[in-house]
Amino acid sequence: MTDQPKLKLDTLKLYFGEPYTIHTPSKDIIVYQPTIGDIMEFGEERFYSMANVFIANSTMYRLQLWDLGIDWNDVSDYQIFSMLVTNLKPEDTKPLFGDIDFTTFNLYSKQISSEDGEIQEELVLYSPELDIEINEQVHAQMSLYIRTILNIFPKVEKAKGKTTKQWIIEEERQKQKKNKEEQSSSLLPLISACLNHPGFKYKKNELKEVGIIEFMDSVQRLQIYESTTALLKGAYSGFMDTSKVDKEEFNFMREIKHNKK
After folding, report:
1. For residues 36 and 49, what is the distance between their CA atoms, to the nearest angstrom?
2. Single pTM value for the model
3. Residues 6+ positions from 225 with CB-CB distance below 8 Å
4. What are 6-49's pLDDT values in tens digits?
5. Most buried of the four, 51, 160, 243, 252, by CB within 10 Å?
6. Burial code of 82-119, b = ≥16 C-beta within 10 A, e = fewer?
7. What phi, psi does 83 have (nearest 5°)?
8. Using CA atoms, how far apart are residues 146 and 68, in angstroms rounded to an integer?
9. In angstroms, what CA-CA distances link 22 with 30, 139, 261?
10. How far apart are the C-alpha atoms of 246 and 244, rounded to whole Å?
């Protein structure tokens, strides 16, 4: 496994919905940002199921891996991605990747040279038909972009000891069973809450044209505004000791922090 460089995104371009270009060892990959209307037309459940392939880590699929006799602690994000992505047809990934056909990718062994000149073997996904290579670094960029626009940063949970792992797996099994029984829309509660908030500026018929990251940003900004307003009221009332509160918490225009791992 190669060392991962620190990745950064142009957040201003993200907000305005511009496509994201990922430079690969071969051809570039363009990732598009869907609007709320795009996701609704495509099918919300279908869209998030597809997106999960690109944002997934081993913790998200630990139950499935365990049932296959694989310990999720020993699997990398890139390995999870490699297992899943080649099952996605162009019509499955169109909202994010246009006409890229991920079924044409296969794993190939590639020789790379480390900084000290040592030759190492690396497994990469490559499509001879498209002449596109997706290595760990490319996948990391894809994953970061999609996690950011959807504001989904999956938690990482490692475990040691067979008993601990079995306990976690059984808990996960019960959790997934409950979630399946209570399956509902992820976006609808957010949309409903925002439309009923006096500070939300979009009307229902306008939301279809709003990019997903612009909408998620609005959701978070409203939460920050409300918490900041409550904090200020508490401070001015004299019933709250704000001496230990970070002064940045009083600024509703502060930068939104994502829960990146």
Report:
1. 16
2. 0.84
3. 199, 252
4. 678 898 999 999 999 999 888 899 999 999 999 999 999 999 99
5. 51
6. bbbbbebeeebbbbbbeebbbeebeeeeeeeeeeeeee
7. -70, -30
8. 27
9. 6, 9, 21
10. 6
